[in-house]
Every structure is written in C-alpha cells, then in structure tokens.
C-alpha cells in the first residue's frame, strides 16, 4: 500500500514576526506538502527570509505556531529540527577539507566514523562531485562550491531542505544549470524543500507550488501555471511576467464572459475572475505574450471588439521573440511580445492589437 503524502508536512499557523514597529511576517497561514518543492517568491523585504529563519530556529516568532509532521516546534532547538540549510554565500568552512565540510552535520550528530565516510561519499556522488573530498573549497568553482553546500545539507537526510536565494551569487548560465540540478535532485530524493527567491523565472521553472508574498502576507499560492495564468490580483499579475492593465466598467453579462467598456469608450469581452455586476469598476489584465499584432489596414471594421489601434513606439529584438510598445490614441501604451516569425513590424507602424476574451482577465480593481 502506498502511503498518502502529508499535505501539511510543514505548517505555519498565524505566524508573525515583529521587529519593533516593523511587522516582517503578518499572521500568516501556510502549508507545505510532503516531498514538494515550494518557492517563496516576492520582492525584497516581503518577509521570505524571515519566514524561513523562523522555521530554521534562527528567529523566534512573536506570534503563532510552526509544526513539522504535526509536532509544534516553536521551542525545539535548532539542532533538533533536522533541517538542511543552504544560503546565498554557501557558508563553507574555508580551511576545512570538502570531506570535513560535508561531514560536519554528521559529526555533530555523533554518527559513527565508518558510516560518515560512506554517507559523505554518497552525498558527493549525488551532487556529481565524487572524489573531491581532499580538496579545499578555494580549489572549487562557485558552482561546485554550491553543490558542496547542497551535499552538506542533504547528507544528514533532513526532514526539510531550506534554501535562501542559493543561486544568486552564480552567473546566469550556471544558475540555469544549477536550477535544473536542484530540481532533479529534489525529485530524486523526494525531500520536502522550501526555496526562497525574488526571481519569478526561477520560481516558475522549478516549483511544485509557488507562494507569492508581499508585505509579510501571502498574496496567492498555487502551481506555477495557476499563479501565472490565473493571477488572483494586480500585484501577482504584475510581479509574474509582463502584464498590461486597462481600467474598465462592466456593461453586460454574457454567461462566462463579460462585456466591459474601456476608458476610450470601446468595448471588450473579458473573462471575469470572481463575481461582477453591471456598473462595477474593474481592471483588465492581459499578458504581453497573449496579444497578436497586425497591420491596421488588414483589420475589418466589423470585428471591433477586443481590437486596439495604435502605433509602435518601441521595438526590441530578444532572440526568439520581439517586444513591442504600442501607443493607443488615449496615450496608454501596451506591451506586446510576439514570436519573431510573426514580427515584421517596425517603429512608427500603425497596427492593431488583438486579444482573445479568454486572455483578458477581469480583476477587481
Ligand atoms: N533583524 C532585523 N531587524 C529589523 N528589521 C528586520 C530584521 N530582519 C528583517 N527585518 C525587516 O523585516 C522585513 C522583511 O525582511 P526579510 O529579510 O524577511 O525580507 P525578504 O523578503 O527576505 O527580502 P530580501 O529578498 O531582500 O532578503 C524587512 O522590512 C526587513 O527590513
């Protein structure tokens, strides 16, 4: 019989952290499922690190409770929480050998010497650096040092692996490789992992679940697809990717779609997120990648809804895609990203921008 995974392997209940007048984390409730890779994503200062440090035992909550496997751990000392931690600056001991660095947590736990050797070797193999035990950290590259930090964290077989911006010191290519490696390793080991980042691409590419935070509160949690495609509010839609926002007033309800009036008096069919009534003021969010461009003289006037006319005021080539800024008559500028194949347009061209109602998501403003 396969055992059910615990959906609340780690649980924060009404957790709060105040530093004097600053409330870094505000009575937050959050559950981390067993075996999942969950990222805490948000701008600088939103409380991600503080939340992680409270779980690690490096900060004391000023309110609320933390549970691991159903056991309240508020008063459990750091070394008894059985957590593996990796931080931005690796924090390897520079004068100890790689072997001793990786063995550190095991020695601390008084694991017998013969077992330590096996476990360290296995951990180094897992991070694909077998045989480097005798070297010092300075003899390894940044990416390799980060893998050693990973080996040191997993060798103790932690209940939860905590990673605070572990890739931010690496250059972009190496980051990409390490991202994939961490993702694969986490899936292979099945260890519950909490990963802190302010990089939305990082969060979307590797997580089972993304927790978007702002000002010490959770704004939305869900799979990468859910938070990206069904962003719950302006902040989440804006933080994840390139979004356009247009203010609108609800005109008519048509089953699943609504007809709204825009500031320039044109109409648009949209997909509502939540309940709206006629006359409600709201905001449409449209992803830059979900809009299509065409030349204005190719647009028949019968198809008027969900078309915007404007002029390209900026264009930048980005490799596989082209990014355009299109100024509408009311001076609002739309950001449109199209594949290169469909992008013959130049600065100064008069174009239309077309968007499917399904991709016009109406949010409460
Ligand atoms: N020791 C401290 N004393 C006072 N204020 C603090 C302390 N640690 C954090 N804060 C404040 O708490 C808030 C949350 O900080 P935290 O480091 O958790 O944010 P973060 O989302 O991890 O940001 P970053 O991505 O920049 O690390 C910030 O306003 C920060 O200034």
UniProtKB/TrEMBL annotation:
<dbReference type="GO" id="GO:0015417">
    <property type="term" value="F:ABC-type polyamine transporter activity"/>
</dbReference>
<comment type="similarity">
    <text>Belongs to the ABC transporter superfamily. Spermidine/putrescine importer (TC 3.A.1.11.1) family.</text>
</comment>
<comment type="function">
    <text>Part of the ABC transporter complex PotABCD involved in spermidine/putrescine import. Responsible for energy coupling to the transport system.</text>
</comment>
<dbReference type="InterPro" id="IPR003439">
    <property type="entry name" value="ABC_transporter-like_ATP-bd"/>
</dbReference>
<dbReference type="InterPro" id="IPR005893">
    <property type="entry name" value="PotA-like"/>
</dbReference>
<dbReference type="InterPro" id="IPR008995">
    <property type="entry name" value="Mo/tungstate-bd_C_term_dom"/>
</dbReference>
<keyword id="KW-1278">Translocase</keyword>
<dbReference type="InterPro" id="IPR013611">
    <property type="entry name" value="Transp-assoc_OB_typ2"/>
</dbReference>
<keyword id="KW-0547">Nucleotide-binding</keyword>
<dbReference type="GO" id="GO:0005524">
    <property type="term" value="F:ATP binding"/>
</dbReference>
<keyword id="KW-1003">Cell membrane</keyword>
<protein>
    <recommendedName>
        <fullName>Spermidine/putrescine import ATP-binding protein PotA</fullName>
        <ecNumber>7.6.2.11</ecNumber>
    </recommendedName>
</protein>
<feature type="domain" description="ABC transporter">
    <location>
        <begin position="10"/>
        <end position="240"/>
    </location>
</feature>
<dbReference type="InterPro" id="IPR017871">
    <property type="entry name" value="ABC_transporter-like_CS"/>
</dbReference>
<dbReference type="GO" id="GO:0016887">
    <property type="term" value="F:ATP hydrolysis activity"/>
</dbReference>
<comment type="subunit">
    <text>The complex is composed of two ATP-binding proteins (PotA), two transmembrane proteins (PotB and PotC) and a solute-binding protein (PotD).</text>
</comment>
<dbReference type="Pfam" id="PF00005">
    <property type="entry name" value="ABC_tran"/>
</dbReference>
<dbReference type="InterPro" id="IPR050093">
    <property type="entry name" value="ABC_SmlMolc_Importer"/>
</dbReference>
<keyword id="KW-0067">ATP-binding</keyword>
<dbReference type="Pfam" id="PF08402">
    <property type="entry name" value="TOBE_2"/>
</dbReference>
<dbReference type="GO" id="GO:0015697">
    <property type="term" value="P:quaternary ammonium group transport"/>
</dbReference>
<dbReference type="InterPro" id="IPR027417">
    <property type="entry name" value="P-loop_NTPase"/>
</dbReference>
<keyword id="KW-0472">Membrane</keyword>
<dbReference type="InterPro" id="IPR003593">
    <property type="entry name" value="AAA+_ATPase"/>
</dbReference>
<dbReference type="GO" id="GO:0043190">
    <property type="term" value="C:ATP-binding cassette (ABC) transporter complex"/>
</dbReference>
<keyword id="KW-0813">Transport</keyword>
């Amino acid at each position: 019989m396969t055992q059910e995974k615990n959906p609340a392997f780690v649980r924060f209940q009404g957790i709060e952290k105040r530093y004097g007048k600053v409330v870094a984390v505000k009575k937050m409730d959050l559950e981390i499922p067993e075996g999942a890779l969950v990222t805490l994503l948000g701008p600088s200062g939103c409380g991600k690190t503080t939340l992680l440090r409270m779980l690690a035992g490096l900060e004391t909550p000023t309110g609320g409770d933390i549970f691991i496997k159903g056991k309240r751990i508020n008063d459990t000392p750091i070394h008894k929480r059985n957590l593996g931690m990796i931080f931005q600056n690796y924090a390897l001991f520079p004068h100890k050998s790689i072997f001793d660095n990786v063995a550190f947590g095991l020695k601390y736990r008084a694991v017998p010497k013969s077992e330590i050797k096996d476990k360290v070797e296995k951990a180094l193999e897992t991070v694909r650096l077998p045989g480097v035990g005798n070297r010092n950290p300075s003899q390894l590259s940044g990416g390799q040092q980060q893998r050693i930090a990973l080996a040191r964290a997993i060798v103790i077989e932690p209940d939860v692996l905590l990673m605070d911006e572990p890739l931010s010191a690496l250059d972009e290519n190496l980051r990409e490789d390490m991202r994939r490696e961490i993702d694969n390793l986490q899936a292979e080991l099945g260890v519950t992992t909490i990963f802190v980042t302010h990089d939305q691409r990082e969060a979307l590419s590797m997580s089972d679940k993304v927790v978007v935070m702002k000002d010490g509160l959770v704004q939305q949690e869900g799979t990468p697809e859910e938070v990206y495609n069904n962003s719950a509010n302006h902040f989440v839609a804006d933080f994840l990717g390139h979004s356009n926002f247009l203010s609108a007033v609800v005109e008519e309800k048509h089953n699943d779609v609504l007809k709204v009036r825009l500031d320039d008096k044109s109409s648009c069919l949209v997909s509502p997120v939540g309940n709206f009534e006629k006359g409600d003021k709201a905001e449409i969010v449209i992803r830059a990648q979900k809009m299509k461009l065409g030349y204005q003289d190719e647009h028949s006037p019968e198809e008027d809804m969900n078309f915007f006319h404007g002029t390209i005021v900026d264009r930048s080539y980005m490799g596989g895609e082209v990014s355009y800024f299109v100024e509408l008559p009311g001076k609002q500028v739309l950001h449109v990203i199209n594949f290169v194949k469909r992008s013959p347009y130049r600065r100064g061209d008069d174009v239309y921008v077309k968007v499917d109602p399904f991709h016009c998501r109406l949010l409460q403003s």
